[in-house]
Design brief:
This protein is of the alpha/beta class. The chain has ten helices and twelve strands. Helix 2 links the parallel strand 3 and strand 4. The chain is globular and about 50 Å long.
């Protein structure tokens, strides 16, 4: 963070400007969608350029595939030259959180954005995030209003889950979810999340997490104990008592995601193993 000055009439004015780093972890991504994500990042950086001294995108590729690396290099090389980038090629599939740690341990920015390769930013997302964080120094992590590809709001802020909540949300058929709608709505904080900011939020999902970099590094980034799923929940729990998590609906993204049950048995198994690790660390709540 530093001040940049300019003259307006006879008055010398100063604007606080920040450095921003972004990390995206990929594993055989949809290149068309990833290209759209990168384009949205560039567009948002341009909108916020008066408050950004620099922005660097770190892509960590877990594919362990030479053709995939070449394709990512071509995609990033075509990016707007005002945005710097680095491609980190993992020696093996490191998983989500540990993949992001490859960038987190190296950066020295003011803010760091953990972003999914299927999350598209609205043009003013970075500007709104920077302005909110500047005005609210007690907030260490900002999460946005999220809509899906159909324009429906997705509720990714959560209260502390029970094993029943997680099972219903991840694996239950639609008719059973409808039967427990009030319960699931409470878990997803639907009663609290609207058009105004909410702080503090207990837990947030990690498709877009806008951190103060110093705080994120002091926490050691994501835990190595989680390969995929619940690494974001665990990080939120470790943050409690040190800073606050804020839901800021002025920051908007479109998330083209899916739940674990739709991704097959392997993801169901990873979800279940990570859930057991999370509850074993932070306390079991059954119902």
């Amino acid at each position: 963070m530093h001040l940049t000055g300019f003259v307006h009439g006879n008055i010398e004015l100063y604007i606080v400007v920040y450095s921003l780093t972004v990390s995206i972890v990929t594993w055989f991504p949809d290149h068309g969608l990833l290209g759209s994500v990168v384009e949205s990042l560039v567009r948002a950086a341009v909108v916020a350029e008066q408050q950004l001294s620099e922005m660097t995108l770190h892509v960590i590729d877990n594919s362990v595939n030479g053709s995939e690396v070449e394709a990512l290099e071509r995609l990033l090389a075509a990016m707007d030259k005002r945005i710097q980038w680095q491609l980190h090629v993992a020696p093996r599939n490191l998983g989500f959180g540990v993949g992001h740690n490859q960038a987190i341990t190296a950066v020295t920015s003011d803010f760091h954005l953990v972003l999914n390769p299927d999350a598209i930013l609205e043009p003013d997302a970075i500007l709104e995030a920077l302005e909110y964080m500047q005005a609210n120094p007690g907030v260490g992590v900002l999460v946005p209003l999220v809509v899906d590809s159909s324009g429906n709001q997705t509720f990714l802020c959560r209260r502390y889950p029970s094993a029943l909540d997680l099972s219903l949300r991840a694996f239950a058929p639609g008719w059973l979810k409808r039967k427990f709608k009030d319960r699931l709505d409470a878990y997803e904080m639907r009663d609290a999340l609207g058009d105004t900011s909410v702080c503090p939020v207990p837990i947030a999902s990690g498709c877009f997490m806008f951190f103060r970099t110093g705080l994120l590094k002091s926490l050691g980034g994501f835990s190595r104990d989680f390969f995929m799923y619940f690494d974001d929940y665990d990080l939120c729990m470790r943050l409690h008592g040190k800073s606050e998590i804020a839901y800021v609906p002025a920051v908007r993204i479109i998330h083209h995601g899916g739940d674990a049950a739709r991704k097959g048995f392997r993801h169901i198994r990873m979800f279940s193993v990570s859930a057991v690790k999370f509850f074993s660390r932070w306390g079991w709540k059954w119902s």
